Amino acid sequence: MTQGSAMDIDLDALTVEAVQAAFKAGTYTAEQLARACFDRIERDNAKYNALIFLNPDALDDARTIDARRAAGESLGPLAGVPVVIKDPMDMVGFPTTAGWAKLYSKRGGVDLMPERDAPVVARMRRAGAILLGKTNVPILSHTGSHANDSWAEPTINVPMPDRVPGGSSADTASAVASGMAVLGLAEETGGSIQNPALAQDLVGIKPTIGLVPNAGVVPLSGNRDVVGPIARNVRDAALCLDVLAGYTSEDTKTLASVGHQPAGGYTSALAADALSGKRIGLYGAGWRTQPLSDEAAALYERVKRELTDLGAVLIDDPFKDSGFAGLRKVTPPLEHFDARGLESIPYDLEKYLQRLGKDAALKTFAEFAEATQDDDQFGPDGVLRYLHNLADFRTALANPSLPPEMPEFVDVKARYLTIFDAVMSEHRLDALIFPQMRCELPPLHGTDIIQETTVGEINIAGLPGIAVPAGYYASGSPFGLIFVGRQWDEAALLGYAYAYEVSRSRS
């Protein structure tokens, strides 16, 4: 095997720990691993349609990591690890298309070329991760189920090709699930990390809002958007969160995170006995009045037994009679999604466009609207038409330079947090563990969407959630859990998720 050539590496099961062990042992180099990933992309991307742009500098970056390692430099755990980036995140050298033909010149639109990376992309570069390229998304990341309307065409679910892959980070999940990359960056406004992670049998972290910066990411809501990792296991996701989390002046929300990050990092609480003695709240009508399907309920009963065996104390429906479920309000004409908090998108887009730099093709929301007017996704037939039913959206649309007040969103966020904290305290709960979906995945093409147990609740409240695989339906459709806790509880939640993951691997 010559230096720099691709190798027969088992990409399907590769983890950060295994990559670093191989580097240390001299089994392969970062360049050889990157080449192997590009070989896999060449072989399988046409089948899954996960990546839309490949990074021509990736092999040079890998060679640089190899040289630094050979020189004896101490490198972090992500150095040399192949990673993919969700398309709406700005990455220098590539247009940010947000899945929309109107934002891609080769499909007749306008290229948005950033002059600098989004903070999360810059942090991954500084950590030495090898950025392989950018992944496909639905138009403006509008759905949590699929990427069927992207200019790049649909992305396919790797373990279940006839079912939805989850959205809007479908393609990050497909890239990781297919072995094209070891890790991926995802982003969520309403289920877009948790859905694709568990739709493809992976782990995802939806952080507390304000923990990870989302400047330089095409917004749906500056009040709800969060960036987080999708990985093959809990440890890898935690290591990635270590890199992503923390303050930057580019996103003032992150100031709230100061003092809330664990001193030992997000792997510090990973332990096989982390669930022992912990009080865990279970899904019920007090949280949301939508029941689980019969098969989901049966799978959840098995999970409850597993949690008990791990020493957890289970509390049935702790939100009963709390008023929590009554706070949810679906935004018409949608049937399942509470969009409150998205009213600010004209202002958020204006701020995003300003960050692109002085040479950007579009610098204001007015220019954005004019360039996309013949395919207006905010109009009566657009994917975001429901925004007109949010109280302050039209005010924001009339003057995108001013942030809307959004009193309804602020009020419901406060009420969610007040009730949540009261219930957690009353029952002395350490976490909630719910099935992430109420039923199995719907078909890839059709009108059905993923039915979650929680999206708006934790996205509006800004609470963290860790998505963890937990088995399969009879059809083979993945079944998974969402671990939810108080704001800034990521380290503890990752510990619980790790304990569950380890127990499943041993069974």
UniProtKB/TrEMBL annotation:
Residues 33-494 form the Amidase domain. One of its GO terms (molecular function) is glutaminyl-tRNA synthase (glutamine-hydrolyzing) activity. Keywords: Ligase, Transferase. The keyword Ligase applies. Gene3D superfamilies: Amidase signature (AS) domain. It is an enzyme of class 6 (ligase). Its EC number is 6.3.5.6, 6.3.5.7. It holds the Pfam family Amidase. InterPro entries: Amidase_dom, AS_sf. This is Aspartyl-tRNA(Asn) amidotransferase subunit A Glutamyl-tRNA(Gln) amidotransferase subunit A.
